[in-house]
Design brief:
This protein is of the alpha+beta class and about 140 residues long. The chain has one domain: Cytidine Deaminase, domain 2 (3-Layer(aba) Sandwich), CATH 3.40.140. Helices cover about 25% and strands about 20% of the residues. The protein is built from 4 helices and 5 strands. The protein has a 5-stranded mixed beta sheet with strand order 2-1-3-4-5. It starts with 13 loop residues before the first helix and ends in a 14-residue tail after the last helix. The protein binds tetrahydrodeoxyuridine. Tetrahydrodeoxyuridine (THU) binds next to helix 2.
């Protein structure tokens, strides 16, 4: 976890991004877990994309809030994630799952700030490389036998 002064916010107010994640959480489709998650990211095209978790009767088909926001951003032409906020019903900071960390790594950089919030907007600031050090990446497939 970082001190708030040690990360670039790319002109976006972290509190505002967290509030957008909380707002996005309201749309969560969670008839099975009842656990609402919302996400909001700032992309390199200057836009903010939000997402919520979307569950399914086939439980394994659930899509996390973070990946919903990422797919919206990339399908709209964004190339990079500059900052990310996540909120959930939890009393504590919402930590992205392992699959989401891997998907975030495709579009973020090691320094990308993540604002990980609880249900009411209290948040911790993490650098992406604190959440997923030594991520598997495209270049790992280039040095092969
Ligand atoms: N979930 C997310 O949306 N993001 C995460 O990083 C962790 C888990 C969702 C998936 C599922 O709908 C619910 O939370 C319970 O796992």
């Amino acid at each position: 976890m970082l001190g708030a002064e040690s990360v670039k916010t790319h002109g976006y107010d972290p509190e505002k991004l967290v509030m957008l994640a909380i707002e996005a959480r309201k749309n969560a489709y969670v008839p099975y877990s009842k656990f609402h998650v919302g996400a909001a990211l700032v992309a390199d095209n200057g836009k903010v994309y939000t997402g919520c978790n979307v569950e399914n009767a086939s439980y394994g088909a659930a899509i996390c809030a973070e990946r919903t926001a990422i797919v919206k951003a990339i399908s709209d032409g964004a190339k990079k994630i500059l900052a990310f906020a996540v909120s959930s019903d939890s009393n504590g900071a919402t930590m992205p799952c392992g699959i989401c960390r891997q998907v975030i790594s495709e579009f973020a950089s090691p320094e990308t700030p993540l604002y990980l919030s609880n249900y009411n907007g209290s948040f911790e600031t993490w650098r992406f490389d604190e959440l997923l050090p030594s991520a598997f990446k495209q270049s790992d497939m280039e040095d092969v036998k």
